[in-house]
Prior knowledge:
Elements: H1 8-18, E1 32-33, E2 36-37, E3 40-43, H2 47-50, E4 58-61, H3 63-70, H4 77-95, H5 102-124, H6 129-152, H7 167-183, H8 199-203, H9 217-229, E5 233-237, E6 244-249, E7 252-257, H10 261-271, H11 281-293, E8 299-302, E9 305-311, E10 314-319, H12 326-332, E11 339-342, H13 354-363, E12 366-368, H14 370-378
Parallel strand pairs: 10-11, 11-12
Antiparallel strand pairs: 1-2, 3-4, 5-6, 6-7, 8-9, 9-10
Amino acid sequence: MVNRYIDEAVKRKLYAESMGRCMNPSCQRELFCENGDIVEKAHINPYCETADNSFENLVILCPNCHTEFDKNHVFTSEEVLEWKKIRRTELEKFFSKQLETFEDLKKEVTPLLQENKTIYERYYLNDNKALWDKFEFKILVNNKKLKTLFLANSDLIQRHRKESYSNLAYVQSFIAHIDEFEATRTEEEKCREILFPPEINSMFGITPVEDFILPSTESLEFLIERLKAQGKYEGTGIGMDHPYIQMNDEGQSVRVFLDDTPRLRQLYYDYGCFMGAKVRLESLNYAFKYIRSRNVGFAFLSDSNLREITIQNTKLIFVYEYCLSQSELMRLAPEKNSIVVNLHNWNGESCISKQAYILAQNMNVRLLTIKGFYGYINGIK
């Protein structure tokens, strides 16, 4: 008996190469449908003559084109071999294009990621092996497109010299995952070395991840200013377990959580908002959580100034200094009867210098450590 077994790794490469369509440039019939696929694998040079089941000697066709090639001899082997080259050129033309903005990349990438996510959750996580084996073909095709898009547009992705701070590092990990996914078979998935990085879905606003709050309050304020200038800003929710900003994204109102780090980091990169952390946002959020926990009302002086609020007509200014000095207080120049709260608590009572206290008395300003801040909030009736 003739052994026509085709290695699974070869099949997966063929599926990815096809881009989900018949390889005949004059046909390009969609090979994937709701009930599975109509994929047929044809030998370019007859197997009975060559016993060649290599990737180079195989091509994905629809049933009609397969019949026309194998039985009716409408196409020559040279023509079919050329189809593989044509498909590679088409891939480069349509998916290697240089895009101008991350938003342009997002429009191309998001539908592919969404479809992969749906297939994975619906069939793999639900342990439906029969349907997973059919629909996995679609993931291979989508991954080929995603890899090409990412390689051509890596300059649009936020990057940092430290991998743990870099969205580009997640993209590079995803590309490695794509290569491994194409080369391995379903039964070995539990042993796969490189898993899909969920931060990819975070970056493109599909599924948030719960990470850490980026430290710079100033970066968030700058982002709010930029969004307001474009008419995209809708509001801020701060002083809670999962603080967020509400923004208009392509006509939809979306909530971006401040601990959804890859997404927020990408927004900072897109809008040029990375700034040094003068006031740590996590500490500021905790202070607002404490105010809310005591049912004390407060209001921001402006949308893009999160460091200054009013409580019962008294202005509070939040700073983050290892030791609030006289010179720093002079720089702040707080107005009379306002309160300056130092959120930095590592230095205990020494986080405010004696000279600063003396200057504050002359300025008719009150200075509070975190401990003093708690007492002040608790004393509000």
